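Box 3.1 — From sequence to structure: phenylalanine--tRNA ligase
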Amino acid sequence: MGLRRVLLLGEGNFSFAAALCGARGTHVVATCYESEEEALGAAGAARSIRRLRDSGAEVVFSVDCTKLQEHFLLGTREFDRVYFNFPHCGRKAGVGKNRQLLARFFHCTEVLAQEGEIHVALCNGQGGTPADQPRREWHNSWQIVAVAAGAGFILSHVHPFKAETIEGYKCTGYRSQDKSFCVEGALNHVFTRSTAPLCFTPLSCKTQLGSQKLSFQVPQVLVDKINRGFLEENSSHPVRTIKEKLSAGLSQAFPLHNTSSCLPLLHHGHPDGVCHSNTFCITLTPGEAPSAEKTSQGLADAVLFSHFGQDTDKDVQGELPVPQRFYLRPSLLPHAQAIIKQRAFSPGTLQVLSGPVFRKCRIAPHSMPVFHEMLVVLAVSRGTEDSCIQMLVDNIKTTLNSLHQGVSGVKPTISLQEAASFGTELNDFAAFEWQLGEIQHFLCVGTEPEPSGSCVGVIRTAPDELKSRELVVVSVSLNLDLLAMLLCGISDWRMLWTWDRRFLRQFPEGELRLFQSFSLYPPSYEHDVSFWLPDGEEFDEVAFHTLAREVSGEMVVSIQLRDNFQQPGTGRRSLCYRVTFQSCDRALGCREAAEMQLHFREEMQQQLGVTLR
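Predicted structure (token representation):
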């Protein structure tokens, strides 16, 4: 490892810098705002400066932390760590001025290396985060996480600033005087660079129907999630690890055949019983994708699968009229049903299908517009289905218990519950599965503090028209993303899809670990929007949530109905929602959130036909 370069700003008597200068493999550059003459007037400063210079450190005076580019040439002086201990505008400056100081400081940190850290120590309560005990009211704090977010930084660690452990350190500078101040309960806030906001261009996919080459545009809300390859062989993503471990466990009890590599992405027609607002409608266009748009090569071989609705009348090998409506697959179940219809299976052999599926849904921490489904299909002799289901569930339980034990040492609660007597409210995954067909059992996984569990899987037997006299087909559908969240302690589904490499670094290939967030206490921004509904039309709340996802790039974390008003006399209806913007993995500043709010309001009028109040 090379020399670590450390920059210290706003030093008072240089005692903190002097304590660091002896660290092996570290080059220290210590600075202060005062001139050399003023700095030497602080008690003990001359001794500390002498010690710094004797050790080879640099000491620079009259350095303004908001104008670092004037003191260090950009591109020639990059620091691995920047320390700014107890920043203050001086004298009796209020919280507003100190916020401005921090904002200007964070905006001039080009001297920081790409993967460097900024350490800001604040007195107890100043930061305004839940780590402060007691915690000040937000308006009376320095709001350091929100201030840093405006400059593209996220809070990655917070730990106590233990002044007593720093040899020779003496705090000074209380109200610009040579006096110490209280550092009891002080916290060190460690900031790192956030990934930059991503701007995704429209994405088209190529496919073929018979002899015709066709293309379709991916819904904008899914552009960053199509073709991510989480289940591919070279992936270390936790969803693949869970899928591989489950498959390995099942293969010890049953012969197993994987059918996942070439499953069609599109379905023709519409699934019976499924609400149209819950599926992503696709329009096919003849010819190649427009050259101005990015084309997904990984999906170029996707073919159409006609199961839902009516098939086209003409021979698929000939020239076809292009049907108007297709849907991104909301489930792998139709592919399993096709295997059953064709009798393309061996009784007693597990067929394992896996891949991403796409469903429109409301915004919530565990509600996913895309997730990875693992579908296990088994044909067994009639009369043995109950015992086979129990074998499958016991095998899955054993695997999940071993996985969770490796993560945290505590076994999850895994239960098989009869669908007919299921007592708790269905989550979005289970509710959609219920639309696809009758369910016999729910598979639930619980961890503290919710041991009762969340539904992560459903168990069915094939519908009557697919049954034979001798055989019964059993299928188990598992939501791998929900399993990854529960097993690894991930509270927000969006983290599974982050582009920040720090996520996957926590999961070496074949290992599951308890996830440690690299973005702590992200700031949130609330926006109330009220509007009149078009006369005589029902409001599609799922479409409203989907639009919020699209416009914000999944930065909306919550949408809550605040008011439902009907105007006397006219009968016109007005709704008011509170929309909360918050990122789980990157910096989201107040200015960017405000721009999202304005864009959302504009798109609501254009796409939903509402009238803003």
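Summary of the box: The two ends are 60 Å apart (CA to CA).
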